[in-house]
């Protein structure tokens, strides 16, 4: 009897245990950042000791959870904490997908641009600003050129009212002073200065790194005012497929499509395509010229990543770019191309690029980098042809070595430049080899102090030996306070027609006063970074800088000496760019985020004792982004904008009735993004909310738009236009009076789809 009772008791206990186990719940899901898996994120049930971490694919799973109501808390360094209430019934197996939002305190990104080697952003002796794909999505654009309009101290400048070509200004310096790199390779230069920032699929960008101030000691010519490094995604970690397309109320259509293809166990291919089209002539300011250039553009990008022993790097990438753009009189059609009946500016651009990196199979860190690009441009500006070919080759070998407290970098590079065009300024094709060597040492002489010294030597057969030294000091006051000082010199060899298309548009004659010498600069930059963490979870980040750059031999276009000419000459004096800049980031626990930046700058030139503000250079700028996520609705609102102070503008003479200075103006945008659909994001909003365009307050923007070939212009014996009843202001045709986009308010709608 006792034995039977014992067996019944054991059976009862077993049944209870089995029943209890069967009634426990489980929780699983995936944690992502903008659709990309986020490994090593912490997932816990608040108030319990249950928790786990996501795997390399962003996946997590927890089992044996007692039924009940819980709060899921997900945290990861550099991201805002995520909380959500869930109810788990008996036997439930619940799946949730969680997307984390980057926080303003994500200051520990790995950066490579400042020192040519991967380091933590906090540890870099050179201040580097980092912008992620999340930043680009807050104001969707069809090109990186347009996307940079909301970066403090960086301004996309449109240089022509007709063809709408432009370049990037950093701290008030003209576009040719900014070096643009793709994956660290200087392939966007010369002709690419104008066109190289369009057609890079935004969906393929991993991050954008910006250095303000000279970097010629590492990157050579062109890195005088600063540099922008566009880093593309690694094929191994990219999504399997992604597509992002949007359209605007003006009839613009943009599509990014990409896919990761596993070629073999150790070879992955990332393939991307960007297509942009705008083909509806619009003339809202009534001058009979297109307000926005019509464009048909395609760019194909592919990147191969190879897995090697000991994680050594090997990647190859290539891009093909083709664009057909035109602007001009509303009646213009291609059959008028190059003629003098109806004015149009038509540009056919074909460009291909190749770049790669290969880490040599040695114990020491030797990295071989190389690139090559071929750019062909067939353009007409009215009846003036500009036919140009450019080829740039680049190879560089670096040795990264640590020895005690010294972090050393040695390198050697060679650059090949070929350039030819049909302008009178190019009597024979450039065919130049420029060899270089450089060295850099970052010495940590105390636990919180380090000093960097660098020197580069270039030999240019046109200008001889060029030395560019560099120095930097970093004081890590605490983990939340960093002070940096950078100083250095820069140089730039100029090719006018690849950089300044104002020289070809309109009716002005181009005059080159003498053989142009290389420009040189001396720069000092002071930077302070402060992070504040409050007890309630609010984060505040402050990044402030003061900068001073002095140029000698600077080359500036002179629009004022003779209104019928653009005169290029080395400045007999000095040019100075100085100012202060600050970025403030605030992230609240409520998912409200504020990013505000402002810059005051004074960019002037002094010659013969007369100092003038540089043309088309603003004295103040501001940018902002206000973002809030309604988690219950899975909806994010972004309000972005910029503001620019007064600029001095190029007038055609004393009778020109247009304003000599621009007003303070602002472009503002709002966007809503819905993330409640699996693998999808739906977004839409309004661009240029204030409907601002430069024609406000001006009688006209393009001078003599009614007579683009100057048929009814009378000239005196010196070649100057004179006032007549048909030309009361003594003007000639000129579209260079431009300081902002002519495109007014417009709505937009888009859809993103991502599969991992």
TrEMBL record:
Query: Which species is the source of this protein?
Result: Flagellimonas okinawensis
What does UniProt give as the signal peptide span?
Answer: 1-24
Concerning PROSITE patterns, the annotation shows: TONB_DEPENDENT_REC_3
What's the short name of a Pfam family annotated to this entry?
CarbopepD_reg_2
Give all residue intervals belonging to the TonB-dependent receptor-like beta-barrel domain: 265-689
Q: Which family does it belong to?
A: Belongs to the TonB-dependent receptor family.
Domain TonB-dependent receptor plug residues, every copy = 122-226
Q: Which UniProt keywords apply?
A: Cell outer membrane, Membrane, Receptor, Signal, TonB box, Transmembrane, Transmembrane beta strand, Transport
Membrane topology reported for the UniProt record = Multi-pass membrane protein
The source's domain of life comes to Bacteria
Q: Provide the protein name.
A: TonB-dependent receptor
What's the main place this protein lives?
membrane
């Amino acid at each position: 009897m006792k034995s039977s009772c014992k067996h019944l008791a054991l059976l009862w206990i077993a049944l209870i245990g089995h029943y209890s186990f069967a009634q426990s719940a489980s929780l699983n899901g995936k944690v992502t950042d903008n659709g990309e898996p986020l490994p090593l994120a912490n997932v816990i049930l608040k108030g319990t000791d249950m928790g786990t971490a996501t795997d390399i694919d962003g996946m997590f799973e927890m089992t044996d959870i007692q039924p009940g109501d819980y709060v899921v808390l997900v945290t990861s360094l550099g991201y805002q904490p995520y909380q959500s209430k869930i109810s788990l019934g008996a036997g439930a197996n619940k799946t949730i997908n969680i997307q984390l939002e980057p926080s303003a305190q994500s200051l520990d990104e790995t950066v490579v641009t400042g020192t040519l080697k991967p380091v933590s952003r906090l540890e870099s002796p050179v201040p580097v600003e980092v912008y992620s794909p999340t930043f680009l999505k807050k104001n969707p654009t069809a090109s990186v050129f347009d996307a940079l309009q909301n970066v403090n101290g960086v301004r996309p400048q449109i240089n022509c009212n007709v063809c709408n070509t432009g370049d990037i200004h950093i701290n008030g310096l003209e576009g040719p002073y900014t070096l643009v790199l793709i994956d660290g390779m200087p392939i966007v230069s010369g002709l690419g200065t104008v066109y190289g920032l369009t057609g890079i699929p935004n969906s393929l960008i991993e991050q954008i790194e910006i250095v303000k101030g000279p970097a010629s000691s590492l990157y050579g010519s062109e890195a005088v005012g600063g540099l922008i490094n566009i880093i593309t995604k690694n094929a191994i970690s990219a999504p399997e497929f992604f597509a992002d397309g949007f359209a605007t109320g003006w009839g613009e259509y943009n599509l990014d499509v990409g896919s990761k293809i596993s070629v073999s166990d150790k070879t992955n291919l990332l393939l991307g395509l960007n297509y942009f089209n705008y083909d509806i002539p619009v003339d809202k300011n009534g001058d009979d010229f297109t307000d926005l250039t019509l464009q048909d553009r395609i760019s194909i990008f592919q990147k191969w990543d190879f897995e090697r022993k000991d994680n050594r790097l090997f990647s190859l990438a290539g891009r093909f770019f083709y664009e057909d753009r035109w602007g001009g009189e509303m009646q213009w059609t291609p059959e008028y191309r190059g003629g003098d009946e109806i004015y149009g500016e038509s540009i056919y651009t074909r460009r291909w690029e190749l770049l790669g990196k290969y880490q040599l199979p040695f114990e020491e860190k030797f990295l071989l980098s190389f690139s090559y690009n071929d750019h062909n441009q067939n353009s007409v500006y009215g009846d003036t042809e500009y036919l140009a070919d450019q080829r740039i080759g680049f190879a560089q070998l670096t040795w990264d070595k640590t020895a005690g407290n010294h972090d050393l970098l040695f390198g050697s590079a060679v650059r090949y430049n070929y350039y030819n065009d049909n302008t009178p300024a190019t009597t024979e094709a450039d065919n130049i080899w420029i060899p270089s060597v450089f060295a850099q040492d970052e010495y940590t002489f105390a636990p919180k102090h380090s000093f960097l010294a660098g020197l580069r030597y270039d030999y240019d057969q046109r200008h001889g030996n060029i030395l560019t030294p560099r120095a930097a000091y970093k004081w890590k006051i605490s983990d939340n306070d960093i002070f940096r000082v950078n100083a250095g010199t820069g140089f730039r060899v100029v090719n006018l027609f690849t950089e300044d298309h104002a020289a070809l548009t309109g009716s002005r004659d181009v005059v080159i006063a003498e053989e142009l010498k290389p420009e040189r600069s001396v720069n000092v930059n002071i930077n302070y970074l402060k992070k504040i963490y409050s007890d309630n979870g609010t984060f505040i980040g402050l990044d402030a800088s003061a900068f001073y750059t002095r140029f000698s031999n600077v080359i500036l276009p002179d629009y004022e000496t003779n209104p019928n000419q653009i005169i290029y000459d080395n400045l007999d004096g000095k040019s100075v760019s100085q100012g202060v800049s600050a970025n403030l980031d605030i992230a609240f626990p409520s998912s409200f985020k504020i990013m505000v930046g402002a810059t005051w700058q004074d960019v002037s030139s002094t010659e013969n004792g007369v100092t003038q503000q540089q043309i088309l250079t603003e004295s103040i700028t501001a940018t902002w982004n206000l973002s809030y996520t309604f988690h219950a609705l899975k909806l994010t609102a972004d309000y972005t904008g910029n503001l620019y102070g007064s600029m001095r503008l190029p007038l055609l003479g004393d009778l020109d009735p247009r304003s000599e200075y621009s007003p303070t103006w602002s472009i503002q945008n709002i966007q809503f993004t819905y993330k409640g659909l699996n693998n999808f994001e739906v977004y839409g909003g309004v661009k240029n909310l204030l409907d601002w365009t430069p024609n406000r307050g001006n009688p006209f923007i393009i001078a003599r738009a009614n007579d683009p070939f100057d048929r009814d212009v009378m000239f005196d014996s010196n070649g100057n236009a004179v006032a007549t009843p048909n030309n009361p202001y003594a003007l000639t045709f000129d579209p260079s009076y431009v300081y902002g986009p002519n495109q007014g308010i417009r709505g937009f709608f888009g859809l993103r789809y991502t599969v991992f």
